[in-house]
Amino acid sequence: MNSIKAISADALAWLDAQRLPPSPSNYRLAYSYHDGEHPELVKAVRAIVDDGVRITQAETDTLHERWLGAVTTESAKRADEARTAAIRHQALGLAELAASATATTGEFGRELERSIPELAEEGSASMQELFARTLERTQRAERELAATTAQVQQLREKLEAVQGDAERDALTGLPNRRGIDAYLGADARREAAHVFAICDIDRFKSYNDRYGHAVGDRVLKTVAASLQETLADHFVGRWGGEEFIIIARTDVSDGVKLVEAAKTALGERHFKLRETDEPMGKITFSAGVVPLPVQAAEHEAAFAAADALLYQAKEAGRDRVFGG
């Protein structure tokens, strides 16, 4: 029997391949599908996906409602509340430190203002006392401000780490759909001509069916590493499932050549099954390459055009790159 960890990994990989978000209800359906404890649910899902058709969110919701019932969001709500409380606690601590530093410097300013007449009347003794108090206040303010700065830095680093994790695919280390969207949203990326390419590993399902999802995951990681290595000067992300995207600052003609070079480099790698040393054969992908419009509103049409070219490449025999 598969372990809970293995079933969880398979469920998440399946959701990714179906381009479904890992929401509580979707994850519960995927987990139930892979643990096999609901045969009728497994049969219903397979009736949809066995021919390579991706299951839709609407179909997922219908199956979940029928076989598993409404899932409670209470645990997700508690998790969100805990994260919010932790951030709020840190924010309050920073506010208190900043307020304390502000109060200290304000007190010093008021005391200095009050002491000015004394300087004129009492001479150097008052001056020395004032300097001592000034030094003490200044040192205290510096310590508190330094503590505030350190806290702010720690919070910034934590937030950057969370954001980085949210925008990066856990399996391959490449930017995920959120990271890709962030990259596409930067105006600097659209100052010059760019191309957008979608690459899909040929016959990827056969690797999972023949060798298991662990080997399929290794294939995905190897393809990702090969693309990163060959296209080091360009943006590479995981679009979802066995699909990767490339964004390069060039025109379509040169973009096709870039992707062809990446495909050739992948084809020159020799793959063996780690457990038995059995050769796995050449791993290939098909791709569609299109110009990336300057206007973000036109991106969806470009993605659809690249996807159409990709499937033309598949229908033409796979292991091909089509540009348009």
TrEMBL record:
Residue stretches in coiled coil: 138-165
InterPro entries reported in the protein's UniProt record: Diguanylate_Cyclase (IPR050469), GGDEF_dom (IPR000160), Nucleotide_cyclase (IPR029787), Rev_trsase/Diguanyl_cyclase (IPR043128)
EC identifiers of the protein: 2.7.7.65
Enzyme class: transferase
Catalytic activity: 2 GTP = 3',3'-c-di-GMP + 2 diphosphate
Top-level taxon: Bacteria
Signal peptide: none
Keyword terms of this UniProt record: Coiled coil, Nucleotidyltransferase, Transferase
Pfam family, one: GGDEF
MF terms (GO), sorted A to Z: diguanylate cyclase activity
Domain GGDEF: start-end pairs: 192-324
Record protein name field: diguanylate cyclase
